[in-house]
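User: Hello, can you help with two protein structures?

Assistant: Certainly.
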Amino acid sequence: MTETHRDERNPQDTPRPAWTRHPNAKDEVRLRARELRSQGMTYDEIRAELGCSKSSISAWVRDLPKPAPRWAHVERMQRMEEAQTRLGRERDEERRRLAHEASLEVGGTSDRELLLVGVALYWAEGQKDKAYARRECISFINSDPQMIRVFVRWLELLGVGRDRLRCSLHIHDSADITKTTRFWSDLIDVPTDQFWKPCIKKDNPGTNRLNRGESYRGCLKIYVTNSARLYRRIEGWWYGIVVAARKPDQVNRT
């Protein structure tokens, strides 16, 4: 806004002469902001250059023409896609690096450690007995091959042989049942004649599920025969873990 003063001989407000104005510390910054805007810089670029707020910049340069886009729409979209691809690649590299470093921290595992890991794994993912539905048996289902492998190794530690395992697939009808059965059979070294009839779910017409690719293998359910007594021991081990977790001063035994 132009400063004015009132002239006694002229009732109308007239512009204040420049020589009467006091210098303002922001005048130089304002002029520089207008110069940068005239050169085509954005508000963010001007703010980075001068260190002032965007609201101040807007008040100083809003009367100037808006800079023309630096890139055409197609080029701008291409640059955005390249930036997203680069960011995704960097995140994948960091994810792999962190996972590798963490895996090295684990090192080897003792039988006791595997016992506790398996108990927690089963109590999180396995079938549990309920007062209203007695199910004192070991039954475990999961889609992660590595989790299935750890579970079977844990059963081996508990003295459960492969001959006591009965397996069944829970899978959608779009998958290759024969090929998938062979995959799980090879993974846990259990012959296919110990696989029960699969539980097949029909896909709804028109569905396009992202988890139906080449790596889709459904879920594998593992049932252990004659496992009521072992189930009760697992239940006791879990309660032992719960009690131990309440005592932070308890010394770990290895």
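That covers the first. Now for the second protein you mentioned:
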Amino acid sequence: MNYVSLAKMSLLKSRVLSFTLLLFGSIAFTPALTTAAVCPELLNEKVTTLEGDSLDLCSLSGKVIMAVNTASYCGNTPQYEGLEALFKKFKNDGLIIIGFPSNDFGGQEPGSNEEIATFCAVNYGVTFPMTEKSRVVSAEANPFYKKLAAATGKRPTWNFHKYLVSKNGDTVISFPSSFGPNNSTLISQIEKLLAE
């Protein structure tokens, strides 16, 4: 084997070694880009649906989320119809609505998870996700609602309070119950966040 062949082999080995180091070096640093790093802290929570399934809120990163504390026997209960219409209108654009049934206000959500699911399906045809019944105010509030209140400085004061969360979880906007699903300000904010 002559000197030129040896030089070519040495160069080839050097390139293979460099590529290998580059490849394994990038793999070695991959853990820094895990789901936990990508998931906004606000969404780093899991909730249980009315059907008993686990919903990882991190999986909704990249969508605009509307969280609404709901009740079956409230003057605002007909808002379910508007929420369902809003969900159908914007879901393909990236809006997800999540209902959080709560008995915190006026004892207006006394039923079981199964009763709530039946009520929502039969009376309003609700297809957006609904979580199991939980607290949304006080020290016993579910962890996601604690984060929403901390992010906005506003806690729900009645049923059908709404929080809008931006795609990256950096922006949270609070809307009182009086802002129904057809409210033009609410819809404008949804459209703005979807366009970001």
